[in-house]
Amino acid sequence: NIYKADYSFSRGVGTDAGGNYEITLLPPDTYKIRAFPPKDMITLIGTDLIDLTLASDETRVQDFTLFKAAKIIKGKVTRADGTPVMNAQVQAFRQDTYIETQTDFSGNYTLFVSGGAWNVTVYSWTVDWIYSQPPSVIVFASNATPEEKIASFIVITVDAAVQGRILRPDGAPVSSSTAVSLQGSEGQGYYVPVDSAGLFFIRLPAGTYSIFFNVRDPGFSSPTSTPITVAKGETKDLGNIFLIKATKTIKGKVTRSDGRPITDAVVSAKSNTQNFAETRTDSFGSYLLLVTGG
Questions:
Q1: Measured between alpha carbons, how far is 123 from 261 in angstroms, rounded to an integer?
Q2: Quick one: pLDDT at residue 166?
């Protein structure tokens, strides 16, 4: 697979019976390229990414060697009552590398990986469960010594949903970087960004939740919200939620201890009424937050 760093271009091709491949008609540019093993050769691991710059009319030979994995991550995916989850997607990733497999009928899985630190998580294309916790971090020595580690997951059965639409005061959709998060009484959180029309839909277990609107639309702030209760089997529609025009300003500068400015630092503000605003520092370390009173 070969692609540009911004993913504006991507192309993949398979090898022939002799292991040979050819990718043609590539525009001159800088690319990232790597090789993956066939899906039925699960003990082999893909190569690391290679940066490749092609000039006009250039033909480049780039060979790859696939190695047998010396490290193994295995575990089990179950529901809270211990019922195994079949066909769950388990993924281990680090930087630009990922390896994926499915659980069997007993909920067990095995991943063959190389040394280093891996983030392991589980997800599903179905609609009746989710996993909302951070990935498990598994660390192996960066050598060829065989190692095996366990990472098991307990997923949450979802039986309810919340939907709605976030709009600017004039009725226009908000920025797609705006997101909605719901926090349960036991600390569990569910987060989803809005789409281009400002719509959101969150699947979650029945219960009572606090709502947070993470507004990243300059000049606007979220309205005050109150907790909601969602019954089993219910899809609670919050309707249209209108942002508030921000008229107050918080500004400042982020620096290191020696006074050097820090660029692109995230600065956020949250009020006791659950209003939220966020921005980043500029090249001088300066930031400006537009908020409502409170």
A1: 40
A2: 93
